[in-house]
Each structure stands twice: as C-alpha cells, then as structure tokens.
Amino acid sequence: MPSDADPSPGARERRSDAERNRQAILDAALSALARRPDAALDDIARSAGVTRTTVYRHFPNREALVSAVYAEAMTAVSGAVREARLAQGPVPAAFQRVVDAVLRIADEYMILANGPAVDLNEPVLVAGYEEALEPIIALAARGQATGELATALPAWWLADCLFALLLAALARESDGDLSRDQTPSFVLTSFWNGASTTNSGR
User: Fold this and answer.
1) Packing angle, helices 155-175 and 183-195, rounded to 10
2) What are the CA-CA distances from residue 30 to residues 23, 68, 111 (Å)?
3) Has residue 45 been placed in a domain?
4) Can you tell me the distance from the alpha carbon of 103 to that of 184, in angstroms, rounded to the nearest whole number?
5) Which of 59, 110, 120, 198 is positioned for an S-S bond with 34, CB 3.0–4.6 A?
6) Are 154 and 107 part of one and the same domain?
7) Domain end: 28, 45, 60, which one?
8) Is the pLDDT of residue 73 over 70?
9) Looking at the structure, do residues 130 and 87 belong to the same domain, yes or no?
10) Which domain holds residue 40?
C-alpha cells in the first residue's frame, strides 16, 4: 500500500501537473501584468494555457495572484543580489555589480516597476524585500566603515534608496525616457552623489 511519503505514480503525476500549471500561471501573470496592470484573469489563463477554473484552484482571487507574482519577482531579485557577491571586492565595484545583477533580470520582472497596486505590507512581500535588501544593507555598512559612504544616514536607508532609484529608472525605461544603456550610470551617479562622503561633506 503506498504511503504518504511514497505517493503512487498517478498522485505524483497529478502533483507535477498542478505545479506546472501554477508556474505557467505565474509566468503568464508576470508578463501580462507588467504590460497591463489591469490584465484580466481570463487573459492570463489563456496565456498560461489553462482555464479560469484552474487559476482559481491555485489562487482564490486576483489579489492573491498579484501578491504571488510580486513574491516570485522579489525571490528572483534576492537571488540575483546574492549572486553578485557583494561582500567581495571594493565597495564601488560591488554597487556596480548589484545594479548590473538586478538589470539582468529586470525585463522578466518589470512588474516590480510598473505592475498593479499591491499591499506591500503583506508578510510574504515584506520578507522577500528584506531578504533582497539584506546584502545591500551590509554593503552600505561596509562602505560607511571604509569612509566611502556618509554615516549621517543608516545603512538600511542607503540600501532603500538604491533600490528605489533602480525602480524609478526601470519605470522611466518603460516610458521610453531612458535607455537600458543609460540606466546604470543614472542610478549609480544619483546614488553616489547623495550618499558618498565626498558629496555629503560628512
């Protein structure tokens, strides 16, 4: 008799199908909501190759789907930031790497810059944001310790500002006001002009 720990082949196949459907829905929503924040569930279901009923089987309402999409995007950003190895090398080069890392995945997760409104106080989103920001906070603190970044503001605020600059630049890209080639320079120039000891006088 199959146990819960060793499900039957049929049960494993159904579970795999369900996981594939859920991921297909998330992928379709990532793309659709970044282009049209008001995209209908029917359109997302069609893009995912599933029925509206299947969407509701995984997400009880549109708000739950939007929240899950944002959480998926934050997980991707967190992974990209950690892969940038911010604890290594000179501080300015590490900030360049974190900007480059986020921009490498930005097209896939543009929802963070221009997606639909979402309650950012939801625990899963707060946790995702804090996880993504943690290495950047540590990098900012390292910059303060080396004297390259001003100490008048806390490291977490400097990390928040860098992330906000990235999102603002991506939104401007979507509007056609900024090109991807310009974005790193705009973000880093703005960050260093505001945060460095040279420009702050501290």
Assistant:
1) 150
2) 10, 10, 6
3) yes
4) 8
5) 110
6) yes
7) 60
8) yes
9) yes
10) 7-60
